[in-house]
Design brief:
Length: 736
Amino acid sequence: MAHSDDEAFAFMEEPGGPVEPPPMQVWQVLVVDDEPDVHAATRLALKDVEVEGRALEFSHASSAAQAIEFLAGRDDFAVALIDVVMGSNDEGLQLVRRIREDLGNSMIRVILRTGQPGYAPEIDTIRLYDINDYKTKSELTQVRLFTSLTMAVRSYAQIRQLESSRRGLEQVLSATAELGRPVGMKKFAAGIVTQLCAVLKVSAECLVCAVLPEPGSHPYILAAAGHYDAWVGMALRDVPDGRVRGCLQHVLDTRQHCFDGGVGLFFSGRGGQVLAAFVDVPGPLSELERRLLEVFCGNISIAFENLQLYLDINDLAYQDVLVHLPNRNAMVAAIDAQAAGVNVLALVDLDNFSEINSILDDSYGDAVLQAAARKLRLAFPAETMVARLGGDLFGLYGPADQVTADHIARVFAEPFEMAGGEPLRLSATAGLVRLQGDGQPGVAVLKNAGAALKQAKRFQRGKFMMFEAAQADAARDRIQMLNRLRASFSAEHLFLQYQPFIRLRDERVVGAECLLRWETPDGQFIPPDRFIPLAEQSGLMIPIGEWVFRTALKWRKSLAGLVGDDFRVAVNVSHVQFAEPNFVRGLLSILNEIGVPGEQVEIELTESVAIGNVDVLAARLDALRARGIRVAMDDFGTGYSSLSVIQRLSLDRLKIDRSFVSGPQDGDDRFGIARTVIALARHLRVHTIAEGIETPSQREALQASGCEEGQGYLFSRPLDDAAFRQWLAGRQAAGI
Ligand code: C2E
Ligand code: MG
Ligand code: MG
């Protein structure tokens, strides 16, 4: 066997007895006297004497200094027989003081002897220096010397035992404190192994710890040390060493410690969970060791129960009870602890789960969630964390090569096995976010992934999309912006600006385009190109579009008298508005409500409107046209409308996109396009207007090409109502 030191070895080998014998075969006795005769006489008087089954072994010192040499660094002297009067009258007393105070030896027993009764020490001195006996040499007959020495040896043995047991207890207490910290069950078992080593002073080679998780289940090796290490995780019945296996099984069966053939220890826990430990000690344990182990095991059982309680509470905080997966808290903690390397977080949302839940009963919904949890857990390696984040939302967090959109798609391509029911086909939408280990907190990462998922749902229900962090950020920003837009709209903080249309031939103001404006509460102007697509995606564009139309018509009405009857307001209409079945009816009812002739109204479509069903669109435009409303194709030339579509829709006007108008003109192909569009429009008998005219030369070139109308900063920037009126008045004053 391996052992830490000789003393421990001796300590273990002693058989137990009524009084714990010190770890020695003999009692060491030191005789200190300056008279050589006394040494000889003492040895003779105590010859063949045995105390507690052990002989005496004498050492001899003729002075205090020599005695100190003997005693320094040794604590195995049981008794010192010291002469009081040696070189000086109290040299013996001084020696006792040095033994106790300087050497710190409190265990050695002291018998003082003196030839001169006049130098007897005070009672206080005897108490202070813990002196066992004080006798004059003449008093000390052989018998009395024997009695006094025997008592001194016995008390030494007792003190030594108490000391060992005190140290053992200290060890047990610190071990208990160590094991009392909340750790995982594995660490706890490993801790028991280490602490048992320390308490029993044996090498870590000899310890194994097994656990029986629940009544009726199979015990397995939870922790082990040294060459037993390879057994960790093994079922107890497979442990190759019959002695260890037998001892642990016996302990588990009898639920008691066992001290035959190695030490088997039993620790009971909550809910039937128990631990057993095996210690390979070379021989039987002493009484003291057994008692220490009892205390240790009692404490460990308490720590074990506390640990289970802690783990249970932890489970509640970090586990989803329905599907037995980690929950959102656990996911946040895992991301906070961010594993090295590139990781991906995927949020997987089951499609139509609320319908499943409402059409069928709740327990079926639960079963669906359990089936999904089971399948996801099995589909990914243990390294990937699979969690239920709430409702029908699952999270996958793991290395980038494991958590991929493809892998998730494969999981959902197969039907889900339902406990006791038909297999079920489920689809899901997932947003994936790549984490570069930049230490973003788990909560923020989950938020990003949430934005990614929202985005995925919006466009690609039933798909699994990867979003880079920047995309997720952008998606989150967009959602925030949308919320602010919604708030601004309901607070009526949106407004219109008006940009005039000019007839190029005579500079006459023939109308104005109504452009939507959003000024945020902090004074920021957000361009419509940014917020209109958002409003379109969210459905908010429908009420906003109605408001624009109504406002534009009211504005037109308010201009009566300031402009001619042929002055038209042009309103941009987005494709989502057109997609609404009620669009035409809504528009016409606003027209009636405000009371503006349809001839004064134009709507501007973009070419994207024409992607849908052209027949339906043509019918709607015809219905508008029947009320006099005209239709212009906006940004013409940038899209993909074919000539046939233009004809089918019987458009009134083409708006040449500003990208063909603004910027350098000479020898530029882009202006060539403008010219072609104008020629084409003439051929189709469609009117033309050019947007984005910034310079007189652009204007001249367009006019020369036959373009009828123009709009742009050259004439005026978009203006609010008051500025527009001022602008009109200014022109009138100038006689234009
Ligand atoms: P759009 O209908 O093509 O509007 C013309 C855009 O060109 C406006 O930008 C206008 O300010 C800008 N513009 C006018 N003259 C010049 C110029 O000389 N040079 C340059 N560089 N730009 C000029 P804005 O106001 O930012 O509007 C952008 C787009 O937002 C509009 O393009 C339109 O598609 C959309 N939009 C604006 N208001 C509404 C609305 O009420 N409903 C819908 N559905 N879309 C709108
Ligand atoms: Mg427009
Ligand atoms: Mg335009």
